């Protein structure tokens, strides 16, 4: 435990970073499709609120997303959230050989976690998980 009085566990709001090549398209996706609120904007990007946490979406015209999840949410009922997002036009990814169900949800062999993956408007890989924790 730090002895200088600074404790980032409780004294600061976490910020995750995502990148967008098309700012307007990305804001539309995160606000309209995912329901996140805009916290603030500046000439370089936007802050969105996700359950008390901030997501900094920075505009980078030449952004190339990576193959691994950039951000995700742990939800209480993954089937309900996947179904709702599908109704809003989100396409969930199905990976060959993973054994995902009809909604695109993968269940870990021990049953402790269920995960579904989808891309945002900028092709950043996002995930939903249900861990029961």
From TrEMBL:
InterPro entries referenced in this protein's UniProt entry, alphabetically: Glyas_Bleomycin-R_OHBP_Dase (IPR029068), Glyas_Fos-R_dOase_dom (IPR004360), VOC_core (IPR037523)
Keyword vocabulary terms for this entry: Dioxygenase, Oxidoreductase
Chain ranges of the VOC domain: 11-131
Pfam families assigned to the protein according to its UniProt record, in alphabetical order: Glyoxalase (PF00903)
GO molecular function, a single term: dioxygenase activity
Region forming the signal peptide: none
Protein name listed in UniProt: Glyoxalase/bleomycin resistance/dioxygenase family protein
Organism listed in the record: Rhizorhabdus dicambivorans
Taxonomic placement: Bacteria, Pseudomonadati, Pseudomonadota, Alphaproteobacteria, Sphingomonadales
